[in-house]
Amino acid sequence: MGFILGIVASLIAWAAIAWSLVPRLQISKLNRHPDPSYAVGLRYRIKVRNASWYWAIGDLRVDARLVIKGLDINHPNNRTSLVLPVADGAVFPALDSAGPPLKRRPHFDAERTFTFRVGELRGGGIKRLPIDINSQLSAISLDELVRILQKSGFDCYLRVAISATHGFSGVRRTRSIRAAVEELETGDFEPGSVRIVSPVTSLATLLTEMNPEGENLTTSSSERSKLENLLPSEEASEGEEE
User: Fold this and answer.
1) pLDDT tens, 63-77?
2) Which of 29, 141, 146, 210 is the most buried (most CB within 10 A)?
3) Residue 199 is inside which H or E element, if any?
4) How far apart are CA 107 and CA 110, in angstroms?
């Protein structure tokens, strides 16, 4: 009996140590945020938070892909990944610890929001996109791009991988998420959390209603006005944004 209890105690101790010395990444759902300053009236974002009370993380990396099945007509079951650039250049590689719940610092750098540069998709598969889409990539939203591809019979989804290194142990961890564009929520992030404040889930439907046949792939001024009405009255995101 003592032998079994010893093994159980050892496993519990090992699990506790492993849990504390591995990067504790909290990742939001993929998010769209109305922003009239952008050509398409939207920003597509993800928020990353270091949930550790004591340890910072470094070597932070965010990689995103738009995955399209059937884009290669010679291999219709293959999936083509288009690189979706993140932030404005290199991602800042560090996140501080948040501190214990009762001793949180008022201005901690434990979370950051990253914006995807949708109009700058790149990769060898770009040349396989239909010409009318390829020529307007910088002027259409991700919702519109995916909707048009789906109407053409392509299956699309987003894939994001986030990796970081623990500030003490040096252990590296990678987490990945996959989401259909239709699953994206609209709204602003809650400070100190990766949740979305009062998420709006019908923006894709709104965009479809504003442009049901895809005749005009750009977002008009009137459409931007509708998107602007979805903006929160106050900026809710805490932490830096890239």
Assistant:
1) 999 999 988 888 888
2) 141
3) strand 196-200
4) 9
* CATH classification code of 23-241: 2.60.40
Dihedral Cα 123, 62, 161, 167, nearest 10 deg: 150
Q: How many CA atoms lie within 13 A of 31 on its CB side?
A: 26
- Max mean pLDDT among 86-95, 100-109, 162-171, 219-228 falls in 162-171
Condensed to tens digits (0 to 9), the pLDDT of residues 178-192 reads 998 888 888 788 877
> Using an 8 Å Cβ cutoff, are 128 and 80 in contact?
yes
Q: With the CA atoms of 106, 110, 113 and 116 taken in that order, what torsion angle do they form, in degrees rounded to the nearest 10?
A: 160
Q: Are β-strands 185-189 and 196-200 bridged in parallel, bridged antiparallel, or unpaired?
A: antiparallel
Residue 202: HSE in the Cβ half-sphere, 13 Å Cα cutoff = 5
- The structure tokens listed for 112 are 């950051």
Cβ partners under 8 Å of residue 150, min gap 6: 156
Containing H/E element for 160?
A: strand 155-166
CB 73 within 8 A of CB 27: no
Indicate the domain borders of the chain: 23-241
